[in-house]
Amino acid sequence: MLRLAITGGDGFLGWHTRVLARALGWPEPVSLTRADLADPAVLAAKVAGADRVLHLAGVNRGDPVEVAAGNVELAAALARGLRQCPAPPRTVVFANSVQAGNGTPYGDAKAVAAETLAGTGLDFADVRLANLYGEHGRPFYNSVVATFCRLLADGRRPEVHEDRELQLVHVIDAAAHLLGVPTAGSWDAAMPPLRVGVREVADRLAGYAALYRRGEIPPLPDRHAVRLFNTYRSHCFPAHYPLPLPRHADPRGELTEVVKSHGGQGQTFCSTSHPEVTRGEHFHLAKVERFAVLRGSAEISLRRVGHDEVVRFPVDGDSPVVVDMPTMWIHKIVNTGRGELLTLFWVNELFDPERPDTYAEPVESERREPAEALA
Question: N or C: which end of the chain has fewer CB within 10 A?
Answer without folding.
Answer: N
